[in-house]
C-alpha cells in the first residue's frame, strides 16, 4: 500500500482486543521498517519498489530489527531516565514480540495481494501466490475498517473507565 499508516489498522484492532498480548507500537515499527525500502526506491526513481523487505525473509528481518530496536530503546530509556508515558517500560516482552511478528507478516501478506513485483515466498521460492486473490479495494477497506474497529473499541474502553 502506498500509505504505510493504512497497515496500522489491523494492529490497532488486535491491540484493542488484546492490549496485554499485542503491542501496537511494535506492530507499527515493523511496518515502518518494511516500508523504508519502497520509500527509498520512490525517492531514487528506481523501480521495482517492493523488493527484499516485502518477502517472507524480509518480514523476518523486520521482525528481528523491531525486537532489537525495542530492546535497545528500553535499555537506553531507563539509563537516560526518559519518562515512562504509557508504561512503556512495563510492557510485556511477549506482547512486543507478537506485535512485531504480526506487524511484519501482515504487512507483506496484505501487500502481496496488490503488487505483481513482489516475490512473497523468497527465500523459499520466487512466486507470489496471493497476487490478485483479493482486490485493491477490499484490502484498503479492510485496513480502514480495522482502524475504525480499533478506535471504537478503545473509545468504549476509555468511556467505561471514565464512568466507573
How would you describe this structure to a colleague?
The chain crosses the membrane at residues 53-73, 94-115, 135-156. This is DUF4184 family protein. The protein has one domain (4-163). 62% of the residues lie in helices and 0% in strands. The protein has helices at 8-17, 24-43, 56-79, 93-112, 136-163. α2 (24-43) crosses α3 (56-79) and α2 packs across α4 (93-112). It is globular, with a radius of gyration of 17 Å. The termini are far apart.
Key phrases:
single chain, 164 residues, mainly alpha
Q: What Rg, in angstroms, do the CA atoms define?
A: 17 Å
Amino-to-carboxy terminus distance = 40 Å
Strand content: under 5%
Number of domains: 1
Question: Order of helices and strands, N to C?
Answer: HHHHH
| Average residue-wise pLDDT | 91
Structural category is mainly alpha
Shape type: globular
Count of extended strands: 0
Number of helices: 5
Q: In terms of per-residue confidence, which ranges show pLDDT below 50 for 5 or more consecutive residues?
A: none
Q: Strand count, sense and closure of the main sheet?
A: none
Amino acid at each position: 500500500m502506498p500509505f504505510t499508516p493504512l497497515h496500522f489498522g489491523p494492529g490497532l484492532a488486535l491491540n484493542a482486543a488484546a492490549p496485554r498480548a499485542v503491542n501496537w507500537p511494535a506492530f507499527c515499527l515493523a511496518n515502518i521498517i518494511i516500508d523504508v525500502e519502497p520509500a527509498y526506491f520512490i525517492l531514487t526513481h528506481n523501480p521495482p519498489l517492493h523488493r527484499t523487505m516485502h518477502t517472507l525473509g524480509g518480514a523476518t528481518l523486520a521482525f528481528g530489527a523491531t525486537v532489537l530496536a525495542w530492546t535497545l530503546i528500553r535499555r537506553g530509556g531507563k539509563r537516560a531516565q526518559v519518562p515512562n508515558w504509557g508504561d512503556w517500560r512495563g510492557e510485556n516482552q511477549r506482547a512486543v514480540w507478537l506485535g512485531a511478528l504480526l506487524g511484519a507478516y501482515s504487512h507483506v501478506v496484505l501487500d502481496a495481494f496488490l503488487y505483481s513485483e513482489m516475490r512473497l515466498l523468497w527465500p523459499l521460492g520466487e512466486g507470489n501466490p496471493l497476487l490478485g486473490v483479493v482486490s485493491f479495494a477490499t484490502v484498503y477497506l479492510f485496513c480502514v475498517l480495522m482502524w475504525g474497529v480499533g478506535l471504537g473499541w478503545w473509545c468504549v474502553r476509555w468511556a467505561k473507565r471514565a464512568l466507573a
